[in-house]
Amino acid sequence: MPADLGNRRALVITTNYGVEQDELVKPVEHLRGLGAQVDIAATEKDTVVTLVGDRDPGKTVPATHSLSEVRADDYDLLLIPGGTINADTLRLEDAALDAVRSFASSGRPVAAICHGPWVAVEADVLRGKTLTSYPSTATDVRNAGGTWVDKEVQVCGANGWTLITSRKPDDIPAFLDAINGALTPS
Prior knowledge:
alpha/beta; seven-stranded mixed beta sheet; three-stranded mixed beta sheet; 31% helix
């Protein structure tokens, strides 16, 4: 585990309702605990209401920005948490799609978990990439030109940018280790 990510900035994009609690809270706490600056950009700069298992109420988390306020170029990592409602709604937000495209075109890493890769599907950046996700999105990944695998974590460096993906909350430890690797200089 890296000792210090104090010089790194992470952007988390989400909606204000429906994000899977642990897929938002655990990575944010982890990155902040290592010294990274983490901004949470939601559809609106307001409270983010999380869910557990797409149905039970979870924690509320304050958004630090709205999606329209952030500049993707100011960050080293883009994190897209899952939750069916969150990802399905987020993939209709132009600012979210623009952020994914900005990271992919500039070679900066994108980390997406569970249904989060739906946003990358919609951003049309998956051709030639190998990734994992919640199994119900596998067909969407394939239709977008990606190769879907059923693994705890998948890191793909094809096409000049790193995509880190995981399937579900149980995979978060491996997901965080892969994020650490992407943010730590080799």
